[in-house]
Design brief:
It is built from nine helices and 13 strands. With about 290 residues, the protein is of the alpha+beta class.
């Protein structure tokens, strides 16, 4: 019989843990009071194994392609809806793009369970900070916080359960032309600002970035940027079997979110994305290469 890991000696437990003064980071609070609940936490006594051996023995769903690009008013992030389990489609309508607060959104590629847990904890952490401090965390602060959480998942990544996020946000402290930002990460928690104005992660990222390289227009309006994101995901799905294209039969379409100064982070309505996706499919019927 196994028992939950207990917090270190000297750390308040029960109701005292919630009432005791401390840091404003919800992630640090969980790490101190209930470390076994942290994403990527290795059970006591377990030794991380190098390579993907552990992941191959436990076949779990993986999320795939996410694209992000800046435009004249802010930034767009979009993700396909497919999760794979080896060579099998594990889920056709998984969501891998989430709005995390008023001016930020996160998408992830990799092990779905770890990715979903990481994004949920990150969202709660941002809300916790805003409630305790009375102000929102800066975009750089959000980027650094997410980097620490990705780094905390490194033991699980060494076992093959890798999750890599992409953070997009609107920097309210920057001039409008440069306010839309894209920040990427590696499995060890390194963070990188993407200065080209576009990026993609996941198994179809090579094909998506090739499409974005030709289609991305930093001066485009919102409608044009959303269309470009959907086109890039279509190109990724055209060459990568793990990336799902628009499913007209089941009416499954990409999840797209935009972030601008006036409106903040907004998930684009399903009807809007369906109309764009159907238009893209119709256009590719006439010209498959776009």
């Amino acid at each position: 019989m196994t028992f939950p890991e207990r917090p270190p000696l000297g750390v308040p437990t029960g109701l005292g843990a919630y009432l005791a003064p401390g840091v404003t980071s919800f992630t640090d609070f969980v790490a101190a009071t209930a470390p076994h609940l942290m994403p990527g936490r290795v059970p006591p006594g377990a030794v991380p194994a190098a390579g993907a051996g552990a992941a191959s023995t436990l076949d779990v769903p993986h999320g795939t392609t996410i694209v992000a690009l800046t435009f004249s008013e802010g930034v767009v992030i979009a993700g396909d809806r497919r999760a794979t389990q080896g060579n099998v489609i594990a889920q056709r309508d998984i969501e891998k793009v989430f709005i995390t607060d008023t001016y930020s959104a996160v998408g992830f590629a990799g092990t779905a369970a770890n990715g979903l847990q990481l994004v949920r904890l990150f969202s709660v952490d941002l809300e916790h900070y805003e409630k305790t401090e009375g102000v929102s965390l800066s975009l750089d602060g959000k980027a650094n916080k997410l980097a620490g959480m990705v780094q905390a998942n490194l033991p699980a990544a060494m076992q093959g359960f890798v999750v890599v996020p992409i953070l997009v946000g609107y920097d309210v402290d920057a001039e409008p032309a440069k306010a839309g930002r894209i920040i990427t990460y590696d499995a060890a928690g390194g963070r990188y600002d993407e200065l080209l104005g576009y990026h993609a992660i996941g198994s179809g990222s090579v094909y998506a970035k090739s499409a974005l390289k030709k289609r991305h227009d930093p001066t485009a309006d919102l409608a044009g940027a959303v269309r470009t994101a959907v086109e890039a995901l279509y190109d990724a799905a055209d060459d990568d079997t793990a990336t799902g294209g628009p499913d007209l039969t089941r009416r499954i379409f990409p999840v797209v979110a935009t972030i601008t100064g006036p409106d903040g982070a907004v998930r684009r309505p399903e009807e809007e994305i369906e109309a764009i996706a159907r238009d893209v499919v119709a256009a590719r019927t006439e010209n498959p290469g776009g």
